[in-house]
Amino acid sequence: MVSSCLIRRFSPFLMVFLALFVLMLQGCGGGGGGSSAPPNSAPVFSSGTAIKVVQGNIATGYTAVATDTDAITYNLSGGTDQTAFSIDSVTGMLSFKMIPGFDAPSDINEDNNYVVEITASDSKGASSVQTVTITVLAVVDPAGYYTNTGDASVDDGVSGTIANLNDLQGLGGVNN
């Protein structure tokens, strides 16, 4: 008699306890079959980390390229020479704000090597940073400069070199 009385008395409490227990199991993945989204990964850069540009050009010839499953935006996030540049947030195209001159460098240590950090961010908040060096060269012998053919003597500030015109921004331009 005592046992049937206890069962009737605790029956509502037992029912509530069991219901809560089942809900907790479902919330912990123990049942219900809910799905979870894969983790968001950061964009991955595929563009180079350096480019050479001939003095007198605002365009650097450098375009940041990153891949991700979500939409990507680009911005300048650092680097010693960040203030000398602007970047198109959609295309990743990097440009000088003012035309650089080889004889009067405006980079922080005045060696014609400009350093910037570019951040690629996806629409879910993940991001990656890439450091890029833009080296400004002086045209010493402009033969072929206007036709983009042949070679031109350029000065990198360390050892004057002969460079194929297709390898220099302003004379053809490619990311290095």
What is the arithmetic mean of pLDDT? Answer: 78
Indicate the overall shape: rod-shaped
Number of strands: 11
| Unreliable segments of 5+ consecutive residues | 171-176
Strand content: 35-45%
Radius of gyration: 30 Å
Binned, the helix content reads 10-25%
- N/C terminus separation: 90 Å
DSSP helical segment count: 1
**Structural class label:** alpha+beta
Largest sheet geometry: 6 strands, mixed
What's the helix-strand series? HEEEEEEEEEEE
Structure description:
There is one protein chain. The chain is α+β, with helices and mostly antiparallel strands and about 180 residues long. The protein is built from one helix and eleven strands, in the order H-E-E-E-E-E-E-E-E-E-E-E. It has one helix at about 1-25; strands spanning about 45, 50-55, 60-65, 65, 70-80, 85, 95, 115-120, 125-140, 150-155, 160-165. Strands 2, 5, 8, 9, 10 and 11 form a six-stranded mixed sheet that branches. A hairpin with a 5-residue loop joins strand 10 (about 150-155) and strand 11. The radius of gyration is 30 Å and the shape is rod-shaped. It starts with a helix and ends in a 12-residue tail after the last strand.
